[in-house]
Amino acid sequence: MAMNGNYFFKRVIKAALPYSIIKIYRKYKKGRSALITTLPTKVRLEATTLCQLRCTACPMFSNSFLGKDYLKIADFEKFIQNNRYVKEIELSNKGEIFLNPDLFHIIKHAFENNVKLTAGNGVNFNSVSDEIIEALVKYQFRFMSVSIDGASQEIYSMYRVNGDFNTVIENIKKLNACKKKYNSKFPMLK
Questions:
Q1: pLDDT in tens, 147-175
Q2: In angstroms, rounded to a whole number, what is the distance separating the alpha carbons of residues 54 and 124?
Q3: Which pTM was predicted?
Q4: Are 109 and 80 in contact (CB under 8 A)?
Q5: In the beta sheet, which residues pair with residue 88?
Q6: CA atoms of 119 and 121, how far apart (whole Å)
Q7: Which residues have C-beta within 8 Å of that of residue 75, sequence separation ≥ 6?
Q8: C-alpha to C-alpha distance for 156 and 150, rounded to whole angstroms
Q9: Can you give the pLDDT at residue 66?
Q10: Which domain holds residue 17?
Q11: Domain total for the chain?
Q12: In the β-sheet with 143-146, what is the strand arrangement from edge to edge?
């Protein structure tokens, strides 16, 4: 049975921390004495479960158990507000983060709250607007791993089905030009 995508993202926000840590943190906030060794400073939130490609090795291609939705800016703001100790968030996992229509606001809000964003699990970089490319640099998105399987459209399309190798390369060039314009090393690329 497939879950409603909105339900999934609400569960992600609530389940970002183990219950025992949340319980200890609540006691700590209320002034009770509690032993807190470490609260997590880095977490992973799913920016979206949407993807425009149909890659042969991707589990999202055949599974719909997560639902199809994206992380809303209101939920992201609430998460940041309720978890001030989180300093870094990995946004990539199953979907293509650049299909999230709230991504610009997520990137900006994270920057304004001193939270570093990464996409180390990978992006396909096929559908990214110039506005988002500039936001990645301007708001210091820290790191992205761009998934490129092959050095030509012929080979690339065998793995990244419906993807366009030349578009990805052009988007990387745009990103690098923007980094030069802002004299920034971010986002670092792999």
A1: 998 899 998 888 888 889 999 999 999 99
A2: 11
A3: 0.78
A4: yes
A5: 42, 116
A6: 6
A7: 9, 10, 13
A8: 5
A9: 58
A10: 5-189
A11: 1
A12: 42-44, 88-90, 116-123, 143-146, 188-189
